[in-house]
Amino acid sequence: MKRLIIFTTLLISFCLQSEAQNIDLIVVRAKVIDGDTIPQMYLPEVNVLGYIIFKSPADQRRFEKLVRNVKKVYPYARLAGIKLNEYDALMAGLTEKEQRKLFKRAEDELKAEFGEELKSLNFTQGKILLKLVDRETGTPTYHIVKELRGSITAFFWQNLSRLFGYNLKEKYDPEGKDRDIEAIVKMIENGMI
Q1: What share of the chain is helix, strand, coil (3-state, %, to 5)?
Q2: Is the N end or the C end of the chain the one with fewer CB atoms within 10 Å?
């Protein structure tokens, strides 16, 4: 019996000792306030989207249509942002003549790959695409056209677009009138839709 008690005591002490050695330490920043040490941890941003309550079935249909349109044009806007950053990096050390050649080649490639798909967009999808390009690049479409094609071409396209109800100079406003589009984009990015 004495041996059983010694064996059990040794086993328990061995288990406690091994558990004490397996403690993981997490080192964090801390701040001392009135003699108390308070850890400071930085957490990633979390977007909380509430349940959408529509005032009428017409509002629900309008929102569902907006979701379909944004889902259709959002990949093109993301691609535009990526390609624009790519070409800006490529054009950095080139002369103006080489930049025009590179831009013309890139324009021809993009037209061949996406020209027909972009031509098939309807009016609303086109407006949403312009706003999303501004969201992805941080620059209104007018300024992009002006930078890549020149002021005269940008002026021409701005006036032509104004005839059809577009505005290439319009900024994307995620807090104001474009908040529904922003909510849909965040849902797409989070995999909710």
Answers
A1: 65, 5, 30
A2: N
